[in-house]
Design brief:
The complex is a heterodimer of chains A (180) and B (387). With 180 residues, chain A is mostly helical. Chain A is built from eight helices and no strands. The longest helix of chain A is centred in the C-terminal third of the chain and has 24 residues, at 156-179. Chain A is globular. By secondary structure, chain B is α+β, with helices and mostly antiparallel strands. Chain B has three domains: 4-77, no CATH class; 82-250, outer membrane lipoprotein receptor (LolB), chain A (Clam); 267-384, no CATH class. Classes of the chains: A mainly alpha (180), B alpha+beta (387).
Chain lengths: 180, 387
């Protein structure tokens, strides 16, 4: 946490080294968040690109009141949401030609791990966006329900419900795939 | 069958491996934008130029000239090899540092000056040989102590317009921002058990290197080099702020036993272009080959004057009257913003009415005044300014 604050402080003063460190530290995490929300490699990468560009452009305005990781997740989630609005006319179902596999070019990646990732991503993509977002922000972004509620201007109970329903559905989807 | 806890665990460990080429695509763009942004938002870091925008700084130049004058006369008579020059600077809350000026000349021409500022008007510079200049800007007075000859020189000035510019605190802050526009990252290096990160910036005719404490982000060292003048390096180190500085350190009373030397004075409101021209005239008459100074009002001035004296380029020792003329001429320049004048008389021989040696824009004027090598002056429109 302290390291993040120092990193951010250096970044705000224009340190390219700090920017690189932030990128390297959070690239995978942010891509995962974007990918989970958008379920589209190209769109997720574009969101990441847009995020880092706007992050640099508005470096002076970046104010961190809490967790840096959560802050980043929120930024990416917001961009993903906007992106999704633009893509509304397009189906968000997982396209086998543009699957998570295309984003997984690590040759040494274990097949099992890859399979599990694909399955999970496929399952997450079948959740309604609102549920997907809460699950990702809570479990990946370590955000509290109150924070997500505040972010999305809705009640904590609604957020809790989205999380619970989403998780139930996810369990059902994953279990059904396992048992098949 | 997976439980809810299992699902939570899977999702929280969910990880998408990025494509290798994604990093360069995104990061390169971000770094490029950051670099452009930094360049646009970071003010110039040219130390000397920044210093010169400050009123009190300008008198530091006068202090240099003063000390040079003091050094020239004994040098002219004894040709003894020594060198030093006192320097710098201005106001601050309290700020102390060591200013080192290295030259490409003899090793003993590395000048090390301890500088102390006390806000907002007091400045003290001390060389390792004990040459001390104390400046009280509130009183418009300066005293320089010359231990070698147990002599002191006083200088007074008044009616100096306040110029907008950076003080040393500002300079230090700007230096801290250098990583923004760094052209090179130098990695890590230890300075007196302090691990520091280095950055280098190439700017105009200057290369600036800074080392920043990795833990505290405080400046450890600043180095400024002039590629066009190899060996003329300035180093600022041992930077400390808010140290306790007793007022007695800034006393204008000379120590017991010191004899009085030249008394210089200038009322800037009364200093005119004529005084400035007399400065050139004095220089030309002092120089053996009747040429204009190779430089002035710059960090190199002291070094060059000493070198010229050593090479026998002055026809006679400088007198108190010469010192006063030089001082007065520089006081004139103190009124002109740094960007409103240019000197191009380097080593030009006196006499040609068609060769411009200096131009400046008087405050409030649209036109410029151009001084030629015969010391005649013409007013010209901006579009007709000599290159």
């Amino acid at each position: 946490m302290l390291k993040d604050k120092l990193l951010l402080w250096k970044f705000k003063r224009g340190s390219s080294k700090a920017l690189e460190k932030i990128y390297d530290k959070y690239e995978t995490y942010l891509l995962t968040v974007a990918m989970a929300l958008l379920n589209n490699t190209e769109a997720a990468e574009d969101v990441l690109h847009d995020f880092f560009v706007s992050f640099v452009k508005s470096a002076d305005k970046v104010k961190l009141s809490g967790n840096f990781k959560a802050y980043l997740a929120v930024c990416v989630a917001n961009l993903a949401r906007n992106r999704l609005k633009k893509m509304q006319s397009q189906p968000m179902e997982l396209d086998d030609n543009d699957s998570i596999e295309s984003a997984t070019y690590q040759p040494d990646l274990l097949a099992i791990q890859q399979e599990e990732t694909i399955m999970l991503n496929r399952a997450v993509s079948q959740l309604p966006y609102e549920q997907r977002e809460v699950i990702i922000l809570h479990l990946q972004g370590n955000m509290k329900f109150t924070q997500i509620a505040e972010l999305r201007s809705t009640s904590v109970n609604t957020i809790r419900s989205r999380y619970r329903y989403g998780l139930d559905k996810l369990r059902s989807l994953l279990n059904s795939k396992v048992t098949k | 069958m997976k439980s809810l806890k299992d699902i939570q665990k899977i999702v929280s460990k969910f990880n998408v491996k990025p494509r290798p080429e994604m990093r360069s695509r995104i990061l390169d763009d971000a770094l490029r934008i950051q670099r452009n942004r930094n360049r646009q938002s970071t003010p110039g870091t040219y130390i000397w130029r920044i210093i010169m925008k400050n009123k009190i700084s300008k008198f530091a130049v006068a202090a240099i000239i003063l000390v040079v004058v003091l050094l020239i006369s004994p040098m002219m008579s004894t040709q003894s090899a020594y060198a030093k020059v006192a320097e710098q600077l201005r106001k601050a809350r309290t700020l102390t540092y060591t200013l080192i000026r290295q030259t490409n000349l003899q090793p003993d021409q590395t000048v090390r000056i301890n500088v102390a500022h006390k806000a907002p008007h007091l400045l003290r510079t001390t060389t390792v040989d004990g040459y001390t200049s104390i400046l009280n800007d509130a009183k418009g007075k300066m005293i320089t102590l010359v231990p070698a000859s147990q002599m002191y020189v006083t200088a007074e000035y008044k009616n100096v317009p306040e110029l907008k510019g950076g003080d040393m605190f500002e300079i230090i802050e700007r230096m801290k921002n250098l990583p923004r526009i760094a052209d090179e990252q130098l990695g890590e290096k230890e300075f007196d058990n302090v691990l520091a990160e280095g950055y280098r910036v190439f700017e105009e005719d200057t290369t600036i290197t800074i080392w920043i404490d990795k833990d505290t982000d405080e400046l450890v060292l600043i180095k400024q080099e002039y590629p066009s003048s190899p060996g003329m390096d300035y180093i600022i180190r041992d930077i400390q702020t808010d140290v306790s500085l007793d007022d007695s350190l800034f006393s204008l009373t000379p120590p017991a036993g010191y004899k009085e030397g030249p008394k210089l004075s200038a009322d800037v409101a009364k200093v005119t272009e004529d005084d400035f021209i007399r400065f050139f005239e004095t220089w030309v008459n002092l120089s053996v080959d009747k040429t204009f100074p190779p430089t002035f009002w710059s960090p190199e001035f002291g070094k060059i004057v000493i070198e010229l004296a050593k090479q026998g380029k002055f026809a006679r020792p400088w007198t108190d009257a010469d010192a006063q003329t030089i001082y007065q001429g520089n006081m004139f320049l103190a009124q002109i913003p740094q960007d409103d004048w240019r000197y191009m008389g380097q080593n030009v021989k006196y006499g040609d009415p068609n060769i411009p040696v200096f131009w400046y824009r008087p405050p409030g004027s649209e036109n410029y005044r151009v001084i030629y090598a015969d010391l005649s002056v013409k007013e010209v429109a901006p579009e007709n300014l000599p290159e």
